[in-house]
Design brief:
The complex is a heterodimer of chains A (about 425) and B (about 180).
Chain A (H helix, E strand, L loop, with lengths): L2 H10 L9 E2 L5 E5 L3 H10 L11 E4 L9 H17 L3 E3 L9 H4 L8 E4 L13 E4 L5 H6 L4 E2 L2 E8 L8 H17 L2 E6 L8 H9 L8 E3 L4 H9 L18 E6 L6 E3 L7 E3 L10 E4 L7 H11 L9 E4 L4 H9 L2 H8 L2 E2 L20 E4 L15 E4 L2 H10 L11
Parallel strand pairs in A: 2-3, 2-5, 3-4, 5-6, 8-9, 8-11, 9-10, 14-15, 14-17, 15-16, 17-18
Antiparallel strand pairs in A: 1-7, 12-13
Helix pairs in contact in A: 6-7, 9-11, 9-12
Chain B lengths: L3 E8 L6 H5 L6 E2 L2 E2 L3 H4 L11 H4 L5 E4 L11 H8 L3 E4 L4 H10 L3 E2 L14 E5 L4 E4 L4 E4 L5 H9 L2 H15 L6
Parallel strand pairs in B: 1-4, 4-5, 5-6
Antiparallel strand pairs in B: 1-7, 2-3, 7-8, 8-9
Helix pairs in contact in B: 5-6
Classes of the chains: A alpha/beta (about 425), B alpha/beta (about 180).
Chain lengths: ~425, ~180
Amino acid sequence: MTLTEKILARASGAPSVKPGEIVYPEADLATIHDLYVVEADKELRSLGVDQPWDPERLFVCFDHDVIPQTVAVANRARTVREIVRRWKVKHFFDVGRGQGHVFPMEIGLVRPGMCVLAYDPHVTNYGAIGCLGLALAFEFPAVLATGSHWFRVPRTLRIELEGRLPPGVTIRDATAVIIREVGPDRADYRIFEFAGPALEHLSVDARVKLCNLPVEIGVKSAIVPADERVAEWMQARNIGPFEPIGSDPDAEFEATCRFDLSALEPMMALPPMPDNVVPLKQVLGMPVQAAYLGSCAADQYEDMVEAAAILRGRRVAPGVRMIITPGSREVAERCLREGLMSVFTEAGALVGPPGCGPCAIGRGGPLADEEVCIATVTRNDVGRMGSRKAEIYLASGATVAASAVTGRITDPRELAG
Amino acid sequence: MNWVMQGRCWKFGDNLSLDDDILEFAKVFVQGVRVSDPEYLKQHVFTNLVPDFPQRAKPGDIVVAGDRFGQGNPHIYGLLGMRGLGLGLVAESVPRFTYRMLVAAGVPSLPFCKGIGEKVEDGDELKVDFASGRIENLTQGVSAQTEPLPAALLEIVALGGSTAALRKRLEDVRSARPAGRA
């Protein structure tokens, strides 16, 4: 079996599972965010269900509307907190704690081998440490009521990575290439399992990038088998050992796609779809008015370091506003300890509270009509960060920082060193 | 449930996005809370493409879309709005997650009808049997045949979508157990 099939079999109480089979895995953890709680409660009550199936395994995180901008939103936030109390949610994290697809890994709540069922699609981030994250969106009340719901076991594509990224080229650029090359037809309802010698050089933060973007072309989930790098990362956070599991040597993959990281260059996704990926050099020089570093696609420590390396000793260009949201309290505190926060503030960037930031339909800094934004966010749909008449160009943290400094879309290698 | 629908063809292109083309996501919020009532959502369906779509569309009308209908973040609201208007869907292709959401929203669908775009024009009168997969273009006198949804999924659509199906599942579980137990 593949790693995903093993996790699904264990969570479904079956000795084995095969692609195409319908299974009912039970959630080791079920996750929802603040925007969905009121809706979920209403659905549950309409079904005659007062209490979720197991509050001990329920995770609720306030990461979308971190600082309410209207009284209506503040009122909803109050209702969310009432519902969380009534549900007796064990893992409730109020505003400022972090982005829900990032910090649960940092505190050991999400662990290798777990099966997490989520409302939100970017739960695939947990694949970075070998956890299977599966999203259900509107059908999530089934999990809240019963702990499970039906899934058709997906087929797995093996994405084999070799080589090392050249200087100035980031894992975000590599993942953009991967989603463009594999494409939505081959990716639809597949698992991406990452493998290959390059993983040895890819940190957990880098692996989050690998597992985040593919969901935009329709993968069911993405996963990297937990290895020594994950063990070290967990040990550094004092969150204990884990039982390593991976795909069997005779596991059946639908296909293997190979990528040589050493051959890559900076990339950019043009609006309005995240898989409209082109080499950055085709877009250089376009003026920008907004730059944003953050969202569950790029708000970890290494993303902050990547941007700070460019911003150090420089200032955001006049006429550009730059917003940065660290992914968690841990990330923010480490940035503070290591002087990155002063790099950001001295550059004139705004540092927002941990959470989803403006990636959640412009919350905390929407785009105006006709504005062009360069951002690390997950998606660039029309209206994703505010005005429907604004345009969003997706790139790495390094490219976002370089473009913020010059006021034009800029290759970060020009400013390196 | 009557699986045969007859009505006007509303023809759209490829890559219709969930969050803007089908229904602008910001319109889902009322007083800061997302609304999933099809009767509310139906007034905003497709309005960024056809501003008076909700007024002109009638129950039984068929949306015919190109490839990758409903790409984007898996927000179901536009599909619930389509159900509110009583529409059916025929598409060249649909991402798997959106396929699942069409069932969850209770929208009669033929999600993988390759070549349908060449057989219909906007405004044609169509007759579609969602149980058999047969599509007749009454205006042009041509027809097409495609794979219908599997029976288990048609059953969920017939119940009205995933919430109704879950209600039935919970009732079945409750009635199968002695009183007093969860």
